[in-house]
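tool=predict chain=A
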Amino acid sequence: MTMRAAAGLLRWVRGAGRLDPDARYRLGVSSSLFSGVLPEGSYYPDFTTLEDHRPLEFLAVAGAALRKPWPRCTVLDLGCGEGMSTLAIARTGARVIGIEGRPAVVARAQYLRDRLGYINAEFRTGDVLDGSLWEGADAVFASGLIHHLQQPLRLMELVGQHCSDLAYFCTHFAPRNDAQRTASFFSSMLHEPEAVDFRGRPVRGIRFAEGGDSREQSGRRRRHPRAGIGNTYSWWPSEEGFIDAMGLVGFPVARRLAVNDHRLRYRYCFRRGGEVPDAAGGVPPYFWSGPARPMPESALERALVSDIHFLKRAAISPAVMGTRESVPAVGARLLAEGIRPSVAFVSPTQSGDGPIGNLQARSHASLEKDGPEFVVLACSRLEELRRYLAELVTLKTCRYAFTSFTLPEIGTFPALLDPITGEPVDGPSSSGMRY
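tool=predict ok
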């Protein structure tokens, strides 16, 4: 063990006993599309069991390409979000640095890191185009980031300056022509084709309209954490322009790993020299074994027990948010557990007058004024759950949204789709916690 790793281990051991078991209930509503597993055998966030396979693909390629053992490698995870990819890579024993622009998102990543005890994972908060946050690395992992930047070619420059061997990207590219643009999933959000000069060469691209307010925070709302930070539009380079730019910064070896034309989504790996090996069938070179991924039903039971204990221990009277049809059953379940909900928020078309069971009904519009800290969701359809979570994730006052009380009430689930490609997910049949 190196001196740096030993010092990190000592810091973690000293702080582990002080970890607040209720910390996740005060971190805000997660927007992650993928889950990690907590040591007690529940998923975080608990409304999805989907595992992100892009870090596994990166590890398979990089493991066959890098010339050093993983514990001697450094990896940069750019736009790391809530740290699921950072921690998946950290299981190799490599030093992994995640860079993310939103402090609240980084706090959730640090929580999961501390719960799992991955002392070799570090998170830095700031603009991913700020070179002072970077340092020399053997490999770069950038997934779901570039298409949210106004200046993605600046990121290419930084990769050229700091990465010594391999760079992995999952991103959108500009459509090849008007026909592909019109047929794409993003046709209504792509506009103003624009060429950008890069080292004396024009790179064709197109503007993408970032959703919502251009400011990071407005009133009692914040911008959705999977949107670009502060920019009204981002710029998507063309596939050929992106490859040329990577060649100009010192990465002439390119391999396309996957493409989805409808979503204009591509996965690429670049190297300074040698080949990009085939990742098919690769086994992640894990140094540490993480918590086993539990069956969704047992994980849901554990989450429900934990949620009930927290609400009772903290003497919280949560709001219930959902449909008029589902609120009474969930409210009754809370009362049966000794938890007294405070108010019900229902959609404007359903608000009406008078109480719902023992709760007074208010419309979603009043969330702007009376946004609660803790919300229990109550719905019977998966699309409703998605919509409510999307609304709550932007509400500054909401510290946590409990889904464990309503997930068992959702009777049918559509085929499990990958949230990145929109394609069916291979594996076990979908369950109540997967979407």
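The chain has a mean pLDDT of 88. The domain at 52-271 is CATH 3.40.50.150 (Rossmann fold).
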